[in-house]
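Help needed: design a sequence for this.
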């Protein structure tokens, strides 16, 4: 993992979220898929998602309702 976003991660990242993060970093998930799926196991991860994207210098598009 890249050191820039390690500060975003909680001490005990849910295993499913860890797998989703790895898939995203490997290019196997789109940005939209990552944003929808990363916080599914724990809604407290919603701000973590944006923190990761900011640390990776990825523009965060507005959420479409």
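Sure. Designed sequence:
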């Amino acid at each position: 993992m890249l050191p820039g976003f390690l500060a975003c991660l909680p001490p005990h990242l849910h295993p499913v979220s860890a797998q989703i993060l790895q898939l995203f970093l490997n290019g196997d998930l789109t940005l939209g898929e990552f944003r929808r799926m990363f916080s599914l196991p724990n809604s407290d991860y919603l701000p973590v998602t944006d923190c990761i994207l900011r640390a990776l210098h990825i523009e965060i598009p507005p959420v479409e309702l």
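The two ends are 31 Å apart (CA to CA).
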